[in-house]
Amino acid sequence: MTPLGRLIAARIAQSGPMRLDDYMQTCLLHPQHGYYSTRDPFGAAGDFTTAPEISQMFGEMVGLALAQAWLDQGAPAPFTLAEIGPGRGTLMADMRRAMRVVPGIDGAAQVALVEASPHLRQVQAARLGAVTHLDSVADLPEAPLFLVANEFFDALPIRQFVRVEGGWSERMVVAQDGALGFALSAPVPLPREAPPGEVFEDRPAAAPIVREVARRIARQGGAAIFIDYGTWDGRGDSLQALRRHGFEDPLARPGQADLTSHVDFAPLAAAALAEGVAASAPVPQGEWLRALGIERRAERLTAAGDAGARDALHRLTDPAAMGHLFKAMAIWPRHAPAPPGFAGLEDHAAHA
Ligand code: SAH
Fold first, then answer.
1. Considering the entire predicted model, what is its pTM?
2. Which residues of the chain fall short of a pLDDT of 70?
3. 3-state SS, residue 37
4. What integer best gives the mean pLDDT of the chain?
5. φ, ψ for residue 305 (rounded to 5)?
6. How far is the CA of 150 from the centre of ligand 1 (A)?
7. Beta partners for 260?
8. How far is the C-alpha of 240 from the C-alpha of 257, rounded, in Å?
């Protein structure tokens, strides 16, 4: 077992079975042994690669979409340009470079990064210079807010419930014979119908985060774009552990593998709508990036000698690569136009 695995087993021996969200939180963010607290997991030498690490085009498209939303809302100054879970800082660096084509925007932007990992905070500061780091979205200033989060929600801990006779049982982490395993709790009532054996995943931290962001956008203006892999309303067990670009047992190496799960966008949209902002349906990433002009950008880069641009375009947009599994969703003030490439949920329903 890993050092963190031994700590977790000791805690279970003392206090009983551990909830999955507690296990995930400990694995990802334990101050000494947590996955994000101790390492830079991105890229070929790491465990996984994200869209901004594949190509500068990704951040350019996101940056220009937010810049257009800023212009559409009367170019408020100053405003907060924020990211949740910025990783290496690559997305923010590419966004800012692309946004500079819009006069006045760079001077008006006050960059705020919400990041839990002390190690990644250092990586981000080295990349981006003087930036403000925040512990929580609740610390974002009361100002117009233009925000992005890429592959952030998938890293938030989940709880899993399995439909059993007489209700739902929660999947708990237990320790037996020197290894970690799963066991089911006694049935708990949950107001949901499903066939026996079905797994329901709940991400308790997600809706409160969306509500903090949406409340600011409703009051002060702005827009938020959330990009992640998942569906509108997921079904089944989607917990996964990634290490060195391969899947492994989520209980095998606590603290040394990335733990994520598919994001359900419906609860994010519901949280936003409850705060009185407009929300889009999740749009497949490939469709969204193409609507923003990524193909022309790839042609330009190729003509300028960037030998990797065509391959990157394929990886980001092809349905068999990241183009379909990944989705982008936006929220914005009800009275303002939708950010480029998005439509309000009602319009979407009308056109579906
Ligand atoms: N957006 C980046 C990184 C994605 S990985 C990219 O696309 O490359 C997830 C990021 O979220 C990491 O920076 C991780 O440290 C951060 N993170 C995970 N849980 C967090 C939490 N609860 N609060 C703030 N940041 C968190």
1. 0.96
2. 347-352
3. helix
4. 95
5. 100, 5
6. 8
7. 240
8. 9
Could you tell me which of 284, 149, 268, 152 has the C-alpha nearest to residue 214?
Answer: 268
CA–centroid distance for 298 within its chain: 25
Phi/psi at 323 (5° precision): -65, -30
Torsion of CA 258, 38, 58, 201, to 10 degrees: 30
- Smallest CA-to-CA distance from 227 within 276, 273, 292, 277 is with 292
DSSP 3-state of 170? strand
Q: Domains of the chain: which residue ranges?
A: 3-157+203-351
228: its two tokens: 């992640």
The neighbour count for residue 290, using CB atoms within 10 Å, is 18
Which residue CA neighbors atom 14 of ligand 1 most closely? 85
122's CB contacts (< 8 A; 6+ apart) are: none
Pocket-testing residue among 26, 35, 117, ligand 1, by greatest number of atoms within 8 A of Cβ: 117
Pair 20, 157: CB distance under 8 Å: yes
Percent of the chain's residues with pLDDT above 90 = 90
Asked if residue 108 lies in contact with residue 79, where contact means CB atoms within 8 angstroms, the answer is yes
Please choose from 115, 121, 136, 326 the residue to mutate so as to test ligand 1's pocket, defined by most ligand atoms within 8 A of CB. Answer: 115
The per-residue pLDDT for 234 is 84
Residue 276, both tokens: 């009185």
C-alpha of residue 85 to centroid of ligand 1, in Å: 3
Q: Which two tokens stand for residue 239?
A: 């917990």
Q: Is 3-157+203-351 CATH 3.40.50.12710?
A: yes
Q: How far is the C-alpha of 269 from the C-alpha of 287, rounded, in Å?
A: 19
Q: What pLDDT is stored for residue 347 in this prediction? A: 55
Q: What is the distance of C-alpha 33 from the center of its chain?
A: 22
Per-residue model confidence as pLDDT tens digits over 157-169? 999 999 998 899 9
